[in-house]
Amino acid sequence: MRAAGTTGSGATVVCQRLVHIYQSSGEVVALSGVDLHIGAGEMLALVGPSGSGKSTLVAVLAGLLRPSAGRVFVGDQELTKLPPARLAALRGRTIGIVLQGADRNLLPYLTLERNIWLAQRPAAGLPGRRLDPPGRILELVGLAGAGRRRIDELAPGERQRAALAQGLAANPGLLLVDEPTSQLDRSGRDEVLAALKTINAEQGTTVVVVTHDGEVGTRLGRAVTIRDGRVGAEGRDGRDYAVLAADGTIQLPPETLAGFAPGTLFTVDHTADGVTLRPRDPDGG
Ligand code: ADP
Ligand code: MG
Q1: How far apart are the C-alpha atoms of 63 and 81, rounded to whole Å?
Q2: 143 and which of 102, 131, 138, 184 could share a cystine (Cβ 3.0–4.6 Å)?
Q3: Which residues pair with 271 in a beta bridge?
């Protein structure tokens, strides 16, 4: 049995009014009020156009970036309150990160087993922590028996799954994966998706996948669209929904927005089964 909380079993993730502003040459508002709840053991895709804030959100969830405002919880820890050393420790033990581009996660001249061993070191010897042997982790990602192969001998799809194995090595409660299928053909993508589903089903890991690929989002079951630094919409089991934010706002779908100028006035009418928005007639009606 695994220890309760954030070790091994899936971690709950909560973002409350998350804001991030990059201060480089001028200010860039990358996140402008993200509210998000991800249940323990849930699997979710973050989708959305380039520049919408997906990677920034993942960096905040990973504890790699401190947000300008708002709160983030992973398991029972509030990341936004932890001092740097405790944040680094949490990253090594509770949060698995798979960066975009498989090779950035791996040492190419070492074997798969050795890469996993290195990734397990931050969590090794922690009280109550049972680490899976590398062979078991490789089995989860569909690379059983490949432990002695060097990373630079693997095909692209295998490398991406090796990167997942590395992210999984310390048995994290939360696995964050940035664009795992972007450089793969269809069969490589299917293998990565299968590996993610196996990890989630067998380890109970909470899995967050950033993807450009709408189909990946659909196949993971829950797809949250990030638009202009906010949660714009959410797809669940093939249906699209608008999402009510904590500040009372709802983003309309782009195709709806295209029909109205900014500043358009609407009446909000309550009906028996919901709410209707009606634009004011510009001729005074
Ligand atoms: P996505 O991953 O959805 O493409 P990002 O989170 O990378 O989006 O970027 C969101 C916004 O923040 C973009 O406008 C991007 O140009 C800007 N941005 C990202 N990283 C930095 C940075 N280090 N410094 C300044 N601006 C940045
Ligand atoms: Mg990105």
Answers
A1: 11
A2: 138
A3: 274
Nearest ligand to residue 46 Cα: 1
Where does ligand 1 bind, in terms of residues with CB under 6 Å?
Answer: 22, 24, 28, 30, 48, 50-56
Residue with token string 């900014």: 262
Which residue has the least CA distance to atom 21 on ligand 1? 22
**Nearest protein Cα to ligand 1, atom 10:** 53
- Per-residue confidence (pLDDT) for residue 15, from 0 to 100: 97
**pTM (2 d.p.):** 0.91
pLDDT in tens, 152-202: 999 999 999 999 999 999 999 999 999 999 888 999 999 999 999 999 999
**What are the φ and ψ backbone dihedral angles of 152, each rounded to 5 degrees?**
-75, 0
Q: Which residues, in sequence order, are CB contacts of 275 under 8 Å at separation 6+?
A: 268, 269
Q: Which of 18, 56, 68, 230 is the best mutation target for the ligand 1 pocket, counting ligand atoms within 8 Å of the beta carbon and taking the most?
A: 56
The closest residue, in CA terms, to atom 12 on ligand 1 is: 30
Convert the pLDDT of each residue in 92-130 to its tens digit: 889 999 999 999 999 999 999 999 999 998 888 777 777
Q: Which domains does the chain have, with CATH numbers?
A: 6-279 (3.40.50.300)
